[in-house]
Structures are given as C-alpha cells and as structure tokens.
Amino acid sequence: MENIKQQVSDKMQKTLDSLLHQFSKIRTGRASASILDDVKINYYGQPTPVKQLCNISIPEARLIVVQPWDKTTLADIEKAILAANLGITPENDGNVIRMPFQPLTEEKRKDIVKSLKKMAEDARVAVRNIRRDSNEEVKKSQKDHDISEDEEKKLLKEIQDVTDEWVKKVDEAEKTKEKEILEI
User: Fold this and answer.
1) Closest Cα to residue 16, out of 156, 174, 180, 129?
2) Is residue 31 part of a domain?
C-alpha cells in the first residue's frame, strides 16, 4: 500500500506524456520538426523514421527544410510526407524538401482549440479513472482488513491530492498550447 501513491503518480505521468505527445502533433501555424515524428519510409526493407535519414532544419518560423543524407530517398520521403496527411504540401527541388506552413485562419485556430480542449478533457477523465481504480483498491484492502480505516482515509486523501496535482498539470499544458495556437 505504501507504493500506491507512486503507482498512481506514474500512471498519471504517462497520461500527461501521452497528451503532450498528441499536442506536439497539432499544427500551430509555426514550423515544428515534431510533426515528422511518425513519418516513416521503407529504407532497405525496413520502416525507418524520416528523422533518422535526413537533416531537418527550421530556417524561418513557417518553414521546415528536410535534407536527406542519401539523395535517392528524396522521392520516398516526399511521398511519405504526403501520405502522412499533415496538411502541408512538400516542395521537392531535387536536393531538399521544403515544407511551408500556411498561416492559420481564425476559424481554423478555433477548430484546433476545440479539438485541443477535447484531448485535454480526455486526459483529465483518464486521470480521474486512475484515481477511481486506486480508490477501489484501497477500499478493498480496508475491507480485507489489510489496512486500518485511518490508513484508508489517509491513502484516499493522498490519492486525491496527487489527482488534483496532475489535473492541474493537464490544465497548464492545455492553456500553454491554446495560447500558442491563438498567437498570431
């Protein structure tokens, strides 16, 4: 029972990490290399992340330049970027691929913020579900006489404190990303 607080915290950390990973894929109108995290090409029979095959730079706020080390992969990288449906049309000049980000319209920004709020709410629900499961575990332990009523109350309060802390972190992550999206 001593490590239950740590287990709860670890699970909630994974929930926040997952949310932040989802947030990193959201277009903000600014160029971000993380948009290419999940883009893979078939390189010598192996699905290989694009990031491992090229140099990715951001020379301006709204432009990503992808420069493969092996020029023969240029067309495959371009196809993979198109297939990933990132909402960006890559421009291949034979040496590098340029990915210009169009400024987001006000309507698009609001739609993105809506989906952002849904992701954050899903994360808060996941955190609360972790709390519920942990509370049930503590109550079962008390029912089985593994812990006293005082210990049960203490653990339930600790679990609630940890939950409040992680919900606050989710809220902060949401506010930060929302500000980033609405910033012109």
Assistant:
1) 174
2) no
For residue 63, give the 3-state DSSP assignment.
strand
The CATH number for 117's domain is 1.10.132.20
Regarding whether 151 and 114 lie in a shared domain, the answer is yes
Provide the number of structural domains found in the chain: 2
Quote helix, strand, coil % in the chain, to nearest 5: 60, 15, 25
DSSP codes joined into one string, 137-176: HHHHHHHTTSS-HHHHHHHHHHHHHHHHHHHHHHHHHHHH
Q: Are residues 45 and 77 in the same domain?
A: yes
Instruction: Going residue by residue through the chain, which has 184 residues, state the pLDDT in tens, using 9 for 90 and above.
Output: 567 888 888 999 999 888 888 887 776 667 777 777 778 888 888 888 888 888 888 888 778 888 888 888 888 888 888 888 777 788 888 888 888 877 777 888 888 888 889 999 999 999 999 999 999 988 888 888 888 888 888 888 989 999 999 999 999 989 988 888 777 6
63 bridge partner residues: 60, 100
Last residue of a domain, one of 71, 95, 119: 95
HSE value, Cβ hemisphere, 13 Å, CA-based, for 73: 23
Residue 29 lies in a domain: no
